[in-house]
Design a protein that fits this description.
This protein is α/β, with parallel strands linked by helices and about 240 residues long. Helices cover about 35% and strands about 20% of the residues. Residues about 1-5 have low confidence and may be disordered. It has a single domain, classed as Rossmann fold, CATH 3.40.50.1820. Its main location: cytoplasm.
């Protein structure tokens, strides 16, 4: 469990050796990674990175996976030029670092990205996915942004929005059974609150034996016991997006 010296034991896991199929672009005041499918589409996904930032190869790998499934995928720098967390950083400074990077204060950047996707990419149906810090950001957006159609929150830190559950759009929540950052009792409480307050379609799914970050920070080829769950999580994510976009 998290302790005072390590308030968020967010292991970077397996850092992929991956270059990416897309390109970096400037979207007003934000840098972003974007990848487009060969065939034109009006469907796009905003990918919200975790604490390790928009340049993490693992996150670009997932963005490219979305593109191979027919979506424009864009991963903006939601830290807006501020440094991402490094595994070598002192965890004692994590809370102070996080104070200047609020997952609930990304609306300005999201509006800029939505305008870019509509005006420059021809997107009409736009969803969002996010990991860890980005997963919390997804929940925030699903509570208030009318322009997004659906969202997938992957191990989003629940305590960020523990008292807010009236989602505007269908939302899929992915959690690992063995996640040290998000205890199962928090997941159970989230389910109860959604059942009481949520008027749209949602699903909360727990993947057996999986730790924080399993969908994008574990390599299938060196985690054979986890491979079925990594693949299942990715497939479930795509299926949810396909259903609502």
């Amino acid at each position: 469990m998290a302790n005072e010296s390590r308030p968020c034991p967010c292991d970077i896991g397996d850092r992929f050796d991956y270059g990416g199929l897309g390109q970096e672009v400037q979207v007003e005041h934000i840098k972003a990674y974007i990848c487009k499918p060969p065939a034109g589409t009006d469907k796009a996904i905003i990918v919200i990175h975790d604490i390790f930032g928009w340049q993490l190869p693992n996150t670009r790998y997932i963005a490219d996976m979305l593109t191979t499934n027919g979506y424009i995928a864009i991963c903006p720098d939601f830290f807006v030029g501020q440094e991402a967390w490094k595994p070598s950083n002192d965890w004692a400074s994590f809370d102070d670092w996080l104070k200047t990077r609020d997952a609930g204060k990304i609306d300005k950047e999201v509006d800029v990205v939505l305008k870019y996707l509509k005006d420059q990419c021809g997107a009409k149906k736009i969803g969002v996915i996010g990991f860890c810090w980005g997963g919390a950001a997804v929940q925030h957006l699903m509570l208030k942004n009318p322009h997004l159609k659906t969202g997938v929150s992957l191990y989003g830190v629940i305590r960020r929005f523990a008292d807010k559950h009236s989602l505007l759009h269908p939302t899929f929540f992915i959690f690992g059974e063995k996640d040290d950052i998000i205890p199962l009792e928090q997941v159970t409480l989230l389910e109860q609150k959604l059942k009481q307050n949520c008027k749209v379609d949602y699903e909360v799914k727990i993947y057996p034996g999986q730790t924080h970050g399993f969908v994008h920070r574990k390599r299938e080829d060196i985690n054979p016991q986890d491979k079925p769950y990594i693949e299942e999580g990715r497939k479930d994510m795509i299926n949810w997006l396909n259903k609502y976009l």
